[in-house]
Amino acid sequence: MSEEKELVSIKQAAEKAGVSRQSLQYYLMVGLLEPTAVTSTGRRLFGRKAIEQIRLIKKLNDSGYPLRAIRDLFMERRS
């Protein structure tokens, strides 16, 4: 099954990753995460890789890493 067929809503992604919807919205707002796709109506959708990234953010944050440091780490990996 392709990534596109596995896209889920922000609520479902939060549930699958074990975070609150508010936390996920915050991750998006501060640039920790980008949705896999955005519909023409602005609905944000998330695939398997995005959900794995949300889990990683949660695990690092739970281990004591501040979100700013996590974001900086992700920015380094992208460049």
Summed up, what is this model?
The chain is mostly helical.
Descriptive terms for the model:
5% strand, two-stranded antiparallel ribbon, mainly alpha, 2 strands, 79 residues, Multidrug-efflux Transporter Regulator, Chain: A, Domain 2
Describe this structure in words.
With 79 residues, this protein is mainly α. It has one domain (3-78): Orthogonal Bundle (Multidrug-efflux Transporter Regulator, Chain: A, Domain 2), CATH 1.10.1660.10. It is built from four helices and two strands. It has helices at 10-17, 21-29, 48-62, 67-78, and strands at residues 37-38, 44-45. A hairpin with a 5-residue loop joins strand 1 and strand 2 (44-45). Helix 1 (10-17) crosses helix 2 (21-29) and helix 1 (10-17) crosses helix 3. It is globular. The model has no long low-confidence stretch (mean pLDDT 92).
CATH class: Mainly Alpha
- State the strand order across the main sheet: 1-2
Helix-strand topology string = HHEEHH
CATH topology descriptor? Multidrug-efflux Transporter Regulator, Chain: A, Domain 2
Mean pLDDT: 92
Radius of gyration: 12 Å
The description of the largest β-sheet is: 2 strands, antiparallel
How many beta strands in the DSSP annotation? 2
The fraction of residues in strands falls at 5-15%
Terminal residue distance: 30 Å
> Which range best describes the helical content: under 10%, 10-25%, 25-40%, 40-55%, 55-70% or over 70%?
55-70%
Low-confidence segments: none
Enumerate how many helices there are, as a single number: 4
Broad structural category: mainly alpha
**What is the name of the CATH architecture?**
Orthogonal Bundle
Count of folded domains: 1
The backbone outline, from C-alpha atoms, is globular
